[in-house]
């Protein structure tokens, strides 16, 4: 089968940063689905893996989000049959989705939203899981809670921020404040449903002071090290901070006087460690599909890069790497 990957870790700007090659069709495990990939998306994790992780034996296939059609099922599968349309965010310990066929554990797979095409559905999986787990696992909220409290989403126009704004607005009673600095990103987070918008190019504690709001929940989605001092000042006592980025160091001692809780959200944890509750991701993806189909949530896809090829995928990586991407970038499968 055809696949796209990389041989040498490094920037996407170098020649042959991404290559197309032939590889064997993966062999099913008992709980696996073999999926014909019809759509994929690009995430920051693709950029980080390609830049930092040297392949051990031959090219490494990138890609985590996918939507497609189940072609074969393992002997112990119970949730899907051949012909079913699915979407999911994969497993960082396995080969990626930038391929004609992909192997995935059915317990982290959801039914594809019927209202979306394959590429657009692929764009909703990884960020949907991340935002859901951040809101309901890291922040320990329940649906309908949050009255009188606020959440600050730092990096509101990114993929995770775009869906987190919507989930917080639609499924909780939190006041949703998002950061954005350009006219186009401000318009985007307003479209996603943010109640208030602040400029992350300015000190966030000063921006929040003008609103007169001290949020109990802060989703630090990008540049946490840059905003960390301001976060300490603006967060409400006994508040919660959840991060998804990778600050070099994080001194939590200044948070002690306010008794602040800090956690990382990493949506690959359940699949990486085969946790007892791994099936939660199957359930939440089905819920996200329902919310998309009934119009509660809207698509966060903002760029369609054509069919899967080295040129198109490289352009998508370059856009993601630029720090200017809004929402999600997706591609169809191989033409």
TrEMBL record:
Pfam families on file: ADH_N (PF08240), ADH_zinc_N (PF00107)
Domain Enoyl reductase (ER): 13-331
The keyword DNA-binding appears for this protein: no
Keyword Lyase among UniProt keywords: no
Keywords noted in UniProt: Acetylation, Cytoplasm, Metal-binding, NADP, Oxidoreductase, RNA-binding, Zinc
Predominant place of localization: cytoplasm
Listed transmembrane segments: none
Subcellular location: Cytoplasm
Subunit structure as annotated in this protein's UniProt entry: Homotetramer.
UniProt family annotation: Belongs to the zinc-containing alcohol dehydrogenase family. Quinone oxidoreductase subfamily.
Name of this protein: Zinc-type alcohol dehydrogenase-like protein
Species of the source: Roseofilum casamattae BLCC-M143
């Amino acid at each position: 089968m055809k696949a796209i990957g990389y041989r040498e870790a490094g920037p996407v700007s170098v020649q042959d940063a991404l290559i197309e090659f032939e590889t064997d069709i993966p062999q099913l495990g008992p709980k696996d689905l073999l999926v014909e990939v019809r759509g994929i998306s690009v995430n920051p994790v693709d950029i980080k893996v390609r830049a930092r992780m040297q392949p051990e034996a031959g090219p490494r296939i990138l890609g985590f989000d996918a939507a497609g059609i189940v072609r074969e099922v393992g002997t112990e599968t119970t949730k899907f049959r051949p012909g079913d349309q699915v979407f999911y965010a994969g497993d960082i310990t396995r080969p990626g989705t930038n391929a004609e066929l992909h192997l995935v554990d059915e317990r982290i797979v959801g039914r594809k939203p019927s209202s979306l095409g394959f590429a657009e559905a692929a764009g909703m999986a990884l960020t949907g899981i991340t935002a859901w787990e951040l809101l309901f696992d890291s922040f320990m909220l329940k649906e309908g809670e949050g009255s009188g409290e606020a959440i600050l989403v730092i990096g509101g126009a990114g993929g995770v921020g775009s869906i987190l704004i919507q989930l917080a607005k639609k499924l909780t009673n939190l006041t949703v404040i998002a950061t954005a600095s350009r006219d186009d990103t401000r318009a985007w987070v307003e479209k996603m449903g943010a109640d208030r918008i602040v400029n992350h190019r300015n000190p966030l504690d000063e921006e929040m002071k003008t609103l007169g709001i001290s949020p109990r929940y802060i989703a630090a989605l990008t540049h946490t090290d840059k905003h960390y001092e301001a976060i300490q000042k603006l967060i409400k006592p006994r508040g919660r901070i959840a991060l998804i980025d990778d600050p070099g160091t994080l001194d939590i001692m200044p948070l002690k006087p306010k008794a602040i809780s800090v956690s990382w959200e990493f949506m690959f944890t359940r699949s990486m460690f085969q946790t007892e509750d791994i099936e939660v991701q199957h359930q939440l993806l089905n819920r996200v599909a329902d919310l998309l189909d009934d119009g509660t949530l809207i698509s966060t896809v903002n760029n369609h890069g054509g069919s899967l090829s080295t040129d198109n995928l490289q352009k998508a990586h370059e856009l993601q790497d630029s720090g200017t991407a809004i929402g999600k970038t997706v591609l169809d499968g191989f033409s």
